[in-house]
Structure formats: C-alpha cells, structure tokens
C-alpha cells in the first residue's frame, strides 16, 4: 500500500463547495473514472486495451476521463517515440492510494447488489399515491 503525506487542516464544512471531499468527488464520481482506476490498479495499460476492457466507453469519454485523471494527479501518461506512437497509462502513487478505496467499493457492490435490486423493485412497485 502506498502512503501519501497529508497536511492537517482545520475542520472542513462538507456542505461548502470548497470542501476537499466535494472537490475529490468531482474528480472521481463518474463511472468511467472509477472503472479506469480499477482497471489500472491491475497495472499499466494502453489506451486501446482499456477501451476494449471497459465495455460501453466511447473513445471520446475515455480520452476525457484519462485527461481529467492525469490533471488530478491520479494517472500518469507516458508516450514512447515510435510509429505509431505508443502511449501507456499507469496509476500514480496518489492513484494507487485511491485504488484501494475503489476496490472496497467494488467488493461492497458485489456483496450487496441483490439487496439493492430487491429494494429497487419494492420501491418501483409502490402505488403512485405514496
């Protein structure tokens, strides 16, 4: 496990836009970012490899997601001088520290999907009057 040094801050108000929790959730709160982080947790990948592995992601969305994660310091991009150019993506130490949390979310999801689906069915079956 990678340890990232953190600074101590006064108590943050999670309901304010400047709260770090909200800022980080803005970075990773879409499904593609979480899937990319989970995939890269298994090691370095090339763009085409990721596109094939993540069912349903468009080239445009994957590109935008990778750029956003790179901007946030979660993913690093390495370009090799070759024809055609070879580009690889890997998690940074910061990204590796986040990957454990994403993995925990995956495990929770798989463990609880039946309950979630049953709850959705119960909710959807309620009369409109409620």
Automatic annotation (TrEMBL):
Keywords recorded for this protein, A-Z: DNA-binding, Transcription, Transcription regulation
GO molecular function: DNA binding
Xref: InterPro entries: HTH_HxlR (IPR002577), WH-like_DNA-bd_sf (IPR036388), WH_DNA-bd_sf (IPR036390)
Name of this chain's protein: HxlR family transcriptional regulator
Pfam family, one: HxlR
PROSITE patterns noted in UniProt: HTH_HXLR
Organism of provenance: Devosia epidermidihirudinis
HTH hxlR-type domain boundaries: 19-117
